[in-house]
């Protein structure tokens, strides 16, 4: 099974890879920090080593310089040369003896490479320079001479003026004689120290190589561990996720085995998920069967609902039959008089009266209209919605029920606004709803006790912004809260039990007998009316109280 799903921004694979990168980064960072600290320690040790080397070298040079300065300061030849002139043969012989002594120092002391004696004259320039035998006699050829003369007055102890070159004051007979320039070479100790420093550099290179190898090895081990984790944990979880996505898209999707360790938590999760999927498949099958049964029940209920609506419509037509007959009878009576008059006029040789013919024509048209309305109630054209004018619906109801209500002493009043917009609905169903409400209102008025005020039923239609508000109100017996709560329940009625109306309450006095008494009901009228209004998007509002009548308010959206 290969289920396709959208890549997630924070998927498990990315998290695992991020975790691996984090672990490798932390390991590399820790090892790098240790390496940096150790390397810094090596550098510090090397710096301390070099500083110690310089101190040993300086101490060695300082001891050698002090020894030479002490020996030269005791030289009688220098003492004599100090008070004489260089042109004096005796002074020259003394200086030659000093040069010979300096040559011995350079020759037989391994650390001494060169030694010169420089004396400054009153003019600030060298007045006398004594060098070892074998070198130039005089100041020519002395390295760093200018620098020595610039620092001459500042030389009060051993000072370094160049690598391996030092200057030191020379005192003869307790008085300053000049400056002793000493050039030394590396001693055996310095050579040993240099060897140690070279070895330390080699050790540092070895450490860096070992450190890099260890870091690479540790990173490789972490990568291998993460790959194993990915294979044993991440892949089963990804497969489990894909299966879950496939089940969400298609619950009866085929399953495939997931390679997971049965002894760890992921394996347990896979087993539980398989069990859950099996139960889900069983539940899905049960739900499918239940849905099919429900659909069949809904179709059967819709068929029964259509039959009930048709039977209720036919029942309403039956109730209208008496009123229609009364209405047509009212039209036939004047028509009979007109026909009788016309017959007599024709028998006498006269001509028909046009006014009587017009009256006869209007009555025939009225009878035809009444029969058409009755026929549309019994056999509707269909349930297709179309723009409907509520004023026409109310006029049809008033035309069909006006004579019946008036014959019972009940006034049927209609008040319709002139600017009503059309609504979208089925005209025959809307006529059925209004007729049912008017008949219930009539029965509620008939159930009042004797001596009650004249009965009144009002049909009003007003415009409220973009809606059409239709209201059917009466001054009948009203309803109790209990009856009002069960008003739209199927087969709930009070007509067949007591002399009351479906929308009314138990009357306080016996109902009238004879044709004026309300007939029993099936308890389906208002139930079907509620279904019709629901299909038109209307939730009716009922305002009623015992003894105060009932108001049935419906708000329709404009087409």
How do the helices and strands line up, and which of them pair or pack?
Elements: H1 12-73, H2 76-83, H3 89-108, E1 112-120, E2 126-130, H4 145-150, E3 159-162, E4 165-172, E5 175-184, H5 188-249, H6 265-347, H7 354-378, E6 386-388, H8 390-407, E7 410-416, E8 423-425, H9 427-446, E9 455-464, E10 467-474, H10 481-485, H11 525-535, E11 541-544, E12 550-557
Parallel strand pairs: 7-9
Antiparallel strand pairs: 1-2, 1-5, 3-4, 4-5, 6-8, 9-10, 10-12, 11-12
Helix pairs in contact: 1-5, 2-3, 5-6, 6-7, 6-8, 8-9, 9-11
Task: Provide a descriptive summary of the structure in words.
The protein is α+β, with helices and mostly antiparallel strands. Among the domains are: 74-185, 2-Layer Sandwich (Beta-Lactamase); 291-379; 381-559, Heat Shock Protein 90 (2-Layer Sandwich). The protein is built from eleven helices and twelve strands. It has a five-stranded antiparallel beta sheet with strand order 2-1-5-4-3. It has a five-stranded mixed beta sheet with strand order 7-9-10-12-11, with helices on one face. Strands 6-8 form a two-stranded antiparallel ribbon. Helix 2 packs antiparallel against helix 3 (89-108) and helix 6 runs antiparallel to helix 7 (354-378).
Short description:
The chain has 559 residues and is α+β, with helices and mostly antiparallel strands. 57% of the residues lie in helices and 14% in strands. The two termini are 52 Å apart.
How widely separated are the two ends?
52 Å
CATH topology of the domain at 381-559, by name, is: Heat Shock Protein 90
**What's the shape?**
rod-shaped
Structural class: alpha+beta
């Amino acid at each position: 099974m290969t289920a396709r799903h959208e890549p997630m921004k924070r998927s498990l694979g990315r998290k695992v890879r991020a975790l691996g990168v984090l672990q490798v980064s932390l390991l590399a960072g820790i090892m790098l920090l240790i390496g940096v600290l150790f390397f810094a320690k090596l550098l510090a040790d090397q710096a301390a080593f070099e500083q110690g080397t310089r101190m040993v070298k300086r101490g060695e040079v300082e001891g050698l310089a002090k020894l030479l300065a002490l020996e030269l300061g005791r030289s009688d030849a220098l003492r004599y040369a100090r008070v004489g002139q260089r042109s004096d043969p005796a002074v020259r012989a003394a200086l030659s003896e000093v040069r010979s002594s300096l040559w011995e120092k350079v020759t037989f002391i391994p650390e001494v490479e060169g030694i010169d004696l420089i004396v400054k004259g009153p003019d600030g320039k060298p007045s006398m320079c004594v060098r070892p035998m074998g070198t130039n006699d005089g100041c020519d050829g002395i390295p760093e001479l200018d620098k020595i003369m610039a620092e001459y007055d500042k030389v009060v102890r051993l000072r370094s003026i160049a690598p391996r070159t030092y200057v030191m004051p020379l005192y003869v007979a307790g008085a300053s004689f000049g400056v002793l320039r000493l050039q030394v070479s590396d001693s055996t100790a310095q050579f040993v120290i240099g060897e140690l420093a070279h070895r330390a550099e080699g050790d540092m290179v070895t450490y860096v190589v070992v450190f890099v190898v260890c870091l690479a090895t540790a990173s490789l081990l972490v990568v291998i561990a993460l790959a194993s984790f990915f294979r044993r944990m991440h892949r089963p979880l990804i497969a489990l996720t894909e299966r879950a996505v496939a089940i969400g898209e298609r619950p009866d999707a085929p399953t495939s085995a997931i390679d997971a360790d049965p002894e760890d938590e992921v394996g347990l999760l896979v087993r539980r998920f398989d069990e859950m999927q099996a139960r889900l498949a069983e539940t899905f099958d049960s739900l499918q069967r239940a849905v099919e049964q429900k659909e069949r029940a809904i179709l059967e209920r819709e068929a029964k609902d259509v039959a009930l609506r048709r039977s209720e419509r036919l029942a309403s037509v039956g109730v209208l039959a008496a009123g229609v007959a009364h209405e047509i009878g009212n039209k036939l009576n004047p028509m009979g008089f007109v026909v009788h008059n016309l017959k007599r006029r024709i028998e006498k040789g006269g001509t028909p009266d046009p006014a009587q013919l017009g009256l006869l024509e209007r009555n025939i048209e009225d009878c035809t209209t009444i029969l058409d309305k009755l026929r549309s109630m019994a056999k509707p054209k269909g349930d297709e919605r179309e723009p409907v004018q509520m004023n026409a619906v109310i006029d049809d109801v008033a035309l069909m029920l006006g004579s019946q209500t008036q014959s019972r002493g009940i006034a049927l009043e209609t008040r319709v606004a002139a600017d009503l917009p059309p609504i979208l609905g089925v005209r025959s169903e809307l006529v059925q709803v209004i007729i049912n409400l008017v008949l219930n209102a009539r029965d509620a008025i008939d159930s009042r006790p004797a001596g009650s005020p004249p009965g009144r039923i009002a049909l009003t239609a007003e415009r409220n912004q973009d809606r059409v508000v239709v209201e059917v109100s009466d001054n009948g017996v009203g309803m109790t809260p209990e009856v009002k709560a069960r008003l739209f329940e199927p087969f709930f009625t009070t007509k067949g039990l007591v002399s009351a109306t479906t929308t009314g309450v138990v009357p306080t006095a016996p109902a009238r007998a004879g044709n004026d008494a309300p007939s029993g009901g099936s308890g389906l009228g208002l139930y079907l009316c509620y279904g019709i209004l629901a299909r038109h998007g209307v939730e009716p509002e009922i305002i009623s109280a015992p003894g105060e009548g009932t108001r049935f308010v419906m708000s329709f959206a404009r087409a």
